[in-house]
UniProtKB/TrEMBL annotation:
One of its GO terms (biological process) is sodium ion export across plasma membrane. It comes from Methanosarcina barkeri 3. The keyword Nucleus does not apply. This is Cation/H+ exchanger transmembrane domain-containing protein. Residues 17-397 form the Cation/H+ exchanger transmembrane domain. It is a multi-pass membrane protein.
Length: 411
């Protein structure tokens, strides 16, 4: 990458963030989301004949790392925004979402890809796993702001937020299992998956992340009491914490994304009431600056020719995945999820399970590990369809939910 290309990239990112910040209220009024606008900008830029606007300019490693950092910022934002007490008090709602619902989503995604697109069974399992995690960045664009706060109950908003942040990290063992089955013999793959992936890369990551987060929170509290730091440093402190955990846990060979969320939850247990008053602005600022560019990048690297080769079957699979991978199972398990109280809640939580940056990250990771380039066209198509459909329906469906919820007295 030359100096000129780097400055063009910085110019685009800065201009886009500045523009979206200046017209954020108008975007909400127009019933669009910021990720949707960023994706459209990426599509537009890809039509210009410059190297940096060509998909071939960006290799898998660069895309993987850009997505990984964006996810880390997103899950840290959720951890800071949602009170840690909510997570502990509402575990009966969160647990089924992270076990039963995730497993069902994986199965449905894989079966649709296998039946309609004709992928091999193992590759279909991998594609299904990649698009299983609910994206916290897209979810934040749907669940934050005055419209969402006015129309969606806090418990339901928090449930979707915590689920999306948690299952981004928990998606890792789902993705790694078919990768191991592709690259190793079944017995070796299963042994490695349970001992190394589950016990070390997932459980170990949660423990280490929580320890680092708690220590960071304790030190921050001491610094405030000693007046060696002011509260305006909250944003930079928590951002630094996210990057420290993400990198250090990865160096230890564990899953850094899940560790960042655990660190954020542990950090928030040490927060004072005064600090938590500014957390919404912290979250919105971090999301806008660090996550908006990733959707522009997604638009830049969209594989249009490969999408055309998928034909109508690709669009059909994308739509069916978004429609069927959550709503049926949420309807079935509704009685055991206290925070989903009605069929209206089922429809809202079932539809707004967007596929986004997490799938972007896991697709690049999977292609690096397996060399299977056929993953990207269908995964990227599902992501873009999700960004578009959820982006244009978020405000309208949220208002519609509030309207019918008030009529039924279900607030």
């Amino acid at each position: 990458m030359t100096e000129t290309e780097l400055n063009i990239i910085l110019l685009i990112i800065g201009s886009l963030v500045l523009f979206l910040g200046a017209v954020s209220k108008l975007i909400r009024k127009w019933n669009f989301s910021q990720p949707f606008i960023a994706l459209m900008v990426g599509f537009l830029l890809s039509s210009f004949e410059l190297d940096i606007f060509s998909p071939g300019f960006w290799n898998h490693y660069i895309l993987q790392e850009a997505a990984r950092i964006s996810i880390a910022i997103g899950v840290m934002g959720v951890a800071l925004k949602v009170s840690y007490t909510y997570t502990f008090k509402n575990w009966r709602s969160i647990a089924p979402m992270l076990t039963i619902v995730m497993a069902f989503m994986w199965i449905i995604n894989s079966m649709l890809v296998y039946w309609i697109l004709g992928f091999s069974f193992i590759v279909a399992l991998l594609v299904g796993a990649i698009i299983t995690p609910t994206d916290p960045i897209l979810s934040a664009s749907i669940l934050s702001g005055r419209v969402a706060e006015k129309n969606i109950p806090e418990k339901l908003r928090n449930l979707i937020s915590v689920e999306s942040a948690s299952n981004d990290g928990l998606g890792y063992p789902f993705v790694l299992l078919p990768i191991l089955l592709i690259t190793y013999r079944p017995q070796e793959a299963l042994s490695y998956w349970f001992i190394h992936t589950i016990l070390w890369e997932v459980v170990g990551a949660v423990i280490f992340g929580a320890i680092i987060g708690y220590i960071a929170g304790y030190l921050f509290k001491i610094a405030l009491s000693k007046r060696t730091i002011d509260e305006s440093s909250y944003v930079t402190y928590t951002l630094a914490l996210a990057l420290i955990v993400l990198s250090s846990i990865k160096l230890l060979g564990a899953d850094g994304i899940l560790a960042v969320f655990a660190a954020g939850i542990a950090f928030s247990t040490t927060s004072t009431v005064g600090q938590r008053l500014d957390e919404d602005r912290v979250v919105e600022g971090m999301d806008l600056f660090f996550t908006t560019p990733i959707f522009t990048l997604l638009g830049l690297v969209a594989p249009w020719k490969e999408w055309m080769s998928l034909g109508l079957e690709g669009l059909l699979v994308s739509f069916l995945i978004l429609l069927l991978h959550r709503i049926p199972i949420l309807y079935l398990i509704n009685p055991i999820v206290p925070n989903i109280r009605s069929n209206l809640d089922v429809l809202f939580a079932g539809w707004f399970g967007p596929v986004g940056v997490a799938a972007f990250y896991y697709s690049q990771f999977s292609m690096i590990q397996t060399g299977k380039e056929e993953l990207w066209p269908i995964v990227s198509l599902v992501i873009c369809v999700s960004v578009i459909l959820h982006g244009i329906t978020a405000t309208y469906f949220t208002k519609l939910y509030g309207k019918y919820s008030r009529k039924s007295g279900n607030e």
